[in-house]
Design brief:
Blueprint (H helix, E strand, L loop, with lengths): L1 H36 E7 L6 H9 L7 H4 L4 H22 L12 H9 L10 H12 L1 H8 L10 H5 L2 H4 L8 H5 L7 E9 L2 E9 L4 H5 L8 E7 L6 E2 L2 E2 H15 L4 E8 L1 H10 L28 H15 L10 E7 L5 H24 L1
Parallel strand pairs: 1-3, 1-4, 4-7, 7-8
Antiparallel strand pairs: 2-3, 5-6
Helix pairs in contact: 5-6, 13-14
């Protein structure tokens, strides 16, 4: 009897082990099916192209609320840090411009000394005098004229947005709205990701924020992704970074990535900051042909589809920049690699929502077409 009892216990243990093996195998199979049924999108682009804002907009596709953005810790501190960076950038630029910009009110020099004196403080507490000095400086006509020349220095584009909201941001019980958070800058290199569904299809977006050396770091991993979203600052045609024109630098990076694309691949080219590009073109102070001489001979293609009421000069400018990138896609990659350009404004939620839904539909359509071929 004892022997039979031992045998039953051993047999029960073997059955449990077999069940555990079966469950593990089943889970691995389900995980594998989920992995292959998920479209992985890699969000890349040069520094300052608007990737962070775009990523936060994508996270909002998970639902109508801005929970994905609001979960960021110390939201108020981030907004105030961005405001502090904005006023510091303008003040530093005043001396670097040629000719240098000067304050309209000499008595504001003490305010400048205060702002620049707190520049390197790691955890600034934002006392009332900070907002007082920043507001007074933002009203100074000399500083305003410096801001108008910001295209020479590549100042943070959201500076005006935050400087115009000083009275709101300084309030003790200030609560950032979604647009405040979208326009904030993140400085911590890390990899963000978000998952969501569109029409019951799984998508997984990865965003390596702060990892600037795109070619060396990510080129070898492209085969693990369905597509790249490459973000470009379209308004950067007149800005320089470390001696290189920023738009030309984006073109060079895009060319290198395109050559590395796998045999079957999608690249969504987001020509971002269309609002800033339009402002520059219409202002007429910084001409594209001064930086890209070939623009003087460029004519708007007949296939162009301008927005209702769009100025023809803006249409010509944005099509020229688009075609500069598309000329790269005509060589150097497989015939089964596709590039889809999109004109975007990352701070416009409706624009990004529409564009991103078009992209997800293209991803699904491309996969279905390949499965039947």
């Amino acid at each position: 009897m004892n022997c039979f009892g031992i045998y039953r216990r051993e047999r029960k243990g073997e059955d449990e082990d077999l069940c555990e093996v079966w469950r593990t195998h089943r889970q691995q199979k389900d995980d594998k099916q989920f992995y292959w049924a998920t479209h992985r999108l890699l969000l890349l682009g040069p520094v300052g192209s608007g990737k962070n804002t775009l990523f936060n907009q994508v996270k909002m596709l998970q639902g109508p609320e801005c929970d994905a953005v609001r979960e960021q810790a110390s939201a108020v501190q981030k907004v105030r840090n961005t405001l502090k960076e904005a006023i510091e950038n303008v003040l530093v630029a005043m001396s670097s411009l040629q000719p240098p910009a000067e304050l309209a009110l000499p008595e504001n020099k003490l305010r400048v000394d205060y702002i620049l004196g707190i520049r390197d403080e790691p955890s600034f507490s934002f006392p009332p005098e900070f907002f007082e000095h920043a507001k007074a400086l933002w009203k100074d006509e000399g500083l305003r004229s410096c801001y108008e020349r910001c295209m020479e220095t590549g100042l943070l584009e959201s500076s005006r947005y935050f400087l115009d909201k000083i009275d709101v941001i300084k309030k003790p019980h200030y609560k950032p709205n979604p647009e405040d958070l979208f326009r904030c800058r993140l400085h911590i290199p890390r990899i963000f990701d978000t998952k969501f569904q569109v029409d019951e299809v799984n998508f997984h977006v990865l965003y390596p924020d702060g990892l600037y050396y795109i070619n060396q770091v990510w080129g070898q991993y492209l085969c693990n992704f369905t597509a790249i979203i490459f973000v470009v600052d379209s308004s950067s045609y007149d800005q320089n970074f470390m001696g290189t024109n920023r738009l030309q630098e984006a073109l060079n990076t895009f060319r290198s990535l395109w050559r590395r694309c796998p045999q079957t691949f999608l690249v969504f080219l987001f020509l971002n900051k269309q609002d800033l590009l339009a402002d520059k073109v219409l202002a007429g102070k910084s001409k594209i042909e001064d930086h890209f001489p070939e623009f003087a001979q460029y004519t708007t293609p007949d296939s162009a589809s301008p927005k209702p009421g769009e100025d023809p000069r803006v249409t010509r400018a944005k099509c020229f920049i688009r075609d500069k990138f598309l000329s790269i896609t005509s060589t150097g990659a497989s015939d089964d690699c596709y590039c889809y350009p999109q004109f975007t404004c990352a701070v416009d939620h409706r624009n990004i929502q529409r564009v991103f839904r078009e992209c997800t539909q293209l991803v699904q359509h491309t996969r279905e077409r390949r499965s039947y071929s």
